[in-house]
Amino acid sequence: MTQTVNPAARLTSQLVNQVLAIQPLFNLAKQQARRMMQKQAAAIGVDWMQSVAGLRSRGGSQEFAPQWTEELAAIQNPQLQYPEYYLRPFHAYEQGNLSWDAAMEVEVAAQAVHARLWQDAPEQGSRRLRDNYLQVLKSHLSSDPQAIADLGCSVGMTTFALQACYPNAQITGVDLSPYFLAIARYRTQQCQAQINWIHAAAESTGLPSAAYDLVSVFLMFHELPQAAAIAVLQEARRLLRPGGYVAITDVNPCSPVYAKMPPYILTLLKSTEPYIDEYFCLNLEQAIVEAGFTPPSVIEISPQHRSAIAQLPFVVAE
Question: Which terminus of the chain has fewer Cβ atoms in its 10 Å neighbourhood, N or C?
């Protein structure tokens, strides 16, 4: 279930892996990747430190608002056993997504990372990427979904966008990080939204079978080893009603941006994305079909991203 990779790109990737296998160089690369994101945020007028400080204090006088501890306790599933792949460092955070720093910086980080997607409006990159995804949904779904599961929902950026797009739908956001979900719950209170947040793995949600019209997965597959990605597709099949849709948006391994990426930038990328090699070698279209879906429609939604949308047949083969 692999796809062809340019030999030169593969050699560069292998050399980068050798560099990152040296722990001091790995740590240096992570730190530099973080600095680069902060610079990109500043370049589009986003004050990284001020934004995070405001969220940590919830607009109050204390550096860390005590309500966050309450939010965490309210959403966290103490019985959940984290899969081993999730316990590795992610995105320059030693504790990966299981930390307040990761949760409180993810929104500004998304703005920074997506600022280079379109030169005409860099400050709108993150929103434009989601808007393009929603346009793809609108054009490919046969009817508006009434029940949506957003897997790997993070702090709910795409979940809230889905709610705005489909205001009559019942929406459930699922994520492995209770810290991310605590932020999502807080955002829900701010905008008085009606979203159900679940602390669970995307490949084992515990949600009812055949209960959803759309399973959405936005920018999560590149953070998964292949075995977990395939398990997520199988879970999506279980969750969907016959005729329902799975929609996956992620970075596009076939984009020329990655083929031409300078080794230095590739090193920074791979220092924060431990499973990017596995994702780039995954034949996503084939994996979707093998999970029981129709052949997907694949649409480029940015110079670096694609959406794949497939339907569960009305008669599901066992």
Answer: C
- The Cα angle at residue 61 between residues 56 and 63, in degrees rounded to 5: 40
Three-class HEC string of 6-22: CHHHHHHHHHHHHHHCC
Euclidean distance between CA atoms 304 and 318, whole angstroms: 36
Residue found by looking up tokens 């460092």 in the block = 89
- What whole-number distance in Å separates Cα of residue 124 and Cα of residue 120? 9
Give every CB contact of residue 270 below 8 A, 6+ residues apart in sequence.
Answer: 13, 16, 17, 20, 29, 276, 277
pLDDT tier for residue 60 given thresholds of 50, 70 and 90 = confident
Give me the domain span that covers residue 20: 7-311
Element at 310 (helix H, strand E)? strand 305-311
Other C-beta atoms closer than 10 Å to the C-beta of 133 total: 26
Q: Which of residues 193 and 146 earns the better pLDDT score? A: 146
- CA distance linking residue 109 with residue 117, whole number of Å: 14
Q: Residue 111 falls within a domain, yes or no?
A: yes
Q: What pLDDT is recorded for position 317?
A: 52
* pTM to 2 decimal places: 0.90
State the maximum Cα–Cα separation within the chain, in Å, rounded to a whole number: 58
Distance (Å, whole) CA 296 – CA 288: 7
Q: How many structural domains comprise the chain? A: 1
Question: For the stretch 242-278, what's the b/e string if a residue is b when 16 or more beta carbons lie within 10 angstroms of its beta carbon?
Answer: eebbbbbbbbbbbbebbeebeeeebbbbbbbbbbbbb
Q: What is the CATH number of the domain that holds 119?
A: 3.40.50.150
CA distance 291 to 48: 40
Q: Which of 169, 201, 193 lies closest to 97 in space, CA to CA?
A: 201
Which CA distances in Å does 185 have to 97, 154, 163? Answer: 16, 11, 14
**Residue 121: per-residue pLDDT:** 85
Residue 316 lies in a domain: no
